Amino acid sequence: MKTGVRKILEKYGKDKTRLMDILIDVQSEFGFIPREITVQIADDLGMSEVDVDQTISFYHFFSQKPTGKYHIFLNNSAVANMMGRKEVADTFTRELGIKFDEVTSDGLVGLFETSCIGMNDQEPAAIINNHIFTRLTPFRAKEIVRDIKEGKSIEDMFVADYGDGENRSDLIKSVVSNNIRKIGPILERNYKSGQAIEKITQMTPEQVIDEVKKSNMRGRGGAGFPTGLKWEFCRNTKGEKKYIFCNADEGEPGTFKDRVILTERPRLLFEGMVIAGYAVGATEGILYIRHEYKYLQAYLESILEKARESNYLGKNIQGKKGFNFDIRIQFGAGAYVCGEESALIESAEGKRGEPRDRPPFPVEKGYLDMPTVVNNVETLCSVVKVVLNGGDWYKSFGTTESTGTKLLSISGDCKFPGVYEVVWGFSINDILDMVGAHAEDVQAVQVGGPSGAIIAANEFNRILGYEDLATGGSLIIIGKNRDILTNIVLNFTEFFIEESCGSCSTCRIIPTLLHNKLVKILNARGVKQDIDDMIEWGRILKASRCGLGQTAANPILSSIKNFRQLYEEKIQKNKVFDSGFDLSAAVKESCKVTGRVPNI
Amino acid sequence: MSKPIVATTSLAGCFGCHMSVLDIDDRILELFELVEFNKSPIDDIKKFTKHCDIGLIEGGCCNSENIHVLKEFREHCRILVSVGECAIMGGLPAMRNGIPIRECFEEAYLNGPTVVANEEGILPNDPELPMLLDRVYPCHEIVKIDYFLPGCPPRADLIWEALVALVTGDEMKLPYEVVKFD
After folding, report:
1. Could you report the predicted ipTM of this complex, rounded to two decimals?
2. What's the topology of domain B5-98+135-178?
3. Domain A182-395 classification at class level
4. Which of A132, A358, B76, B150 is the most exposed place for a label (fewest CB within 10 A)?
5. Do A594 and B123 touch (CB under 8 A)?
6. b or e along A539-574 (b: 16 or more beta carbons within 10 Å of the residue's beta carbon)?
7. Under an 8 A CB cutoff, do B134 and A590 touch?
8. Domain A70-160: what homologous superfamily?
9. How far, CA to CA in Å, does A249 sit from each of A234, A256, A343?
10. Residue contact B134–A581, C-beta within 8 A
11. What would the pLDDT profile of A502-558 be if each residue is shown by its tens digit?
12. Residues B45-58: tens digit of each pLDDT
């Protein structure tokens, strides 16, 4: 065991900022991270044991206990539940004879839950030993358990054909489907990689930034910060070294467009990173990808290698003296909050993914305290097209405030879930029409994932764009027969509780209190005051440090705002106060332990 | 006009908050001019004999007896005040909330360092005894609480100011130094 770990440590030069990579390798080699290895890592990296422990315990895919030879992580997102996850989960627990978070006694299989894995258009989905299984059914679950018991390799368990496009390529071989339904100027097929890089060798970095500024492009991750401005800030900050980060953490439930770009247009993305590097004067790029997409690793690495061979990466790129840039891939290990840029940087430095206090912003003091630009996958792809066709060309798409196109990840109750590249400025009604959902069958649309808003039919004429409905691109369509409070709001609130980093007391505590209130209302013990309390308490979350905490009440607040009748139907009309306390339930355990009959 | 009636009790608390009431020193004479006490350890009246205006609750709820008393206070008092950390948040007793009930019993009656004579290994289960709750609850999770006085204990001045304000209907003076959370 010791030599195995030593090899891993040496692979990363015993650099403690590479702790994430070290732990990912240890986890994959041993199936968990045993205590003695933690001690060895701490010793060799010159860290304290608790420092290593706190990184391990923060991430969902690190485990300090054995997780089984086969570890099944079944997604529990809202859409997975809409698509029949419960039956699949029940089949797994029944066939394996274990509950979730348990490992079979022979150590063969571990069963775990996990937050949205970016497969909303092909749910229910699971990750088994880093391989994605999509469109699960109880029958498939049974088959998988049977195959596991027979000791089959994961590859042999795929019975269906591989997915479409590059998913079939030798280096991916996955059953995941791209489901690209609409192609626009960013996803277009005729793209030839490298042209934009060749073009910028004839431009000054300032000219590149000016072109991007001219395009009025705003960040595609959701917050919408002007890209050109961000680059300019970073360029103007002094620093020994500068970094370009591509944020491919894509953890917002319902979002999966970045996965499709990584699969089908990775060269476009890498080219965008090189352009960003040239513009701000950075020499290193880091692509931070969520652990759920680890199945793309070999494929992406091979493309980087080819780019190096043809000098689109490396030293003196395309003959331009001093134009040096290279990219490495950093995987996460399962934490939604790492999609927040400063948490992402912390994570890439090998620490817990806790958001930093700002200012200073990453452009001043980012990765390893150096000026750092963090851009979304889609932003970096769009930049390439801006460089090739000009900022004015880009502005010709979309609206004044929201220029260009947007990739939407659409899932839920519609005929054609998948990725759509549309120009900004469409209404929700247009979108419903496009994806094969009849507006009259749709009860609600969740715009922008759990941190966004749930809107009702009377607002379906609202326009997607920064002027009206801003979105990072996730749209979940909720049909008439769904129970919004149980299927959606409760699920999303549990998601925020699970994914809070725990740093701010507001975000650590209030979502749990809101959850308890919601459960109380669902159990018919609620009163009007509970609804008022939720609205009042939800506001306090705005005091949290990052977007996760600040938006953690959004599922509840926006559903109260737009679907208040669903709450009012469930509360007690004749009572003004009910604490929801149940004495007989509260004494049950202690009476059992002491062996007495409760007398209430 | 008859004097306002006050009742007090200590649930899962340490009586520290009651001690803090006594810390109002000579103002206690003024207090007795101002109010009449009913059920309270201060006058040792065990059962409610009247409907009261103000109920002061020290401590949270750790067993069925606490629940019973708290509900009784809610029925008999117009205004109910959670006094101190334990009533408001569960306080020190709530440290057991993360520990399984069985372990709590075993620590207290079988394995703990203070266990000296329980050779038969009995966990108390007489029907007369209050039943332990699954966790320690703050008072407002059981009944409606109207006001909260923070502190461990709340300072005598805070309790005094609050009582006087409730009785006279005047606005409460809350200087920074008086409100402490520990």
Report:
1. 0.92
2. Rossmann fold (3.40.50)
3. alpha beta
4. A358
5. yes
6. eebeebbbbbbbbbbbbbbbbbebbeebbeebbeee
7. yes
8. Glutaredoxin (3.40.30.10)
9. 22, 10, 11
10. no
11. 999 999 999 999 999 999 999 999 999 999 999 999 999 999 999 999 999 999 999
12. 999 999 999 999 99
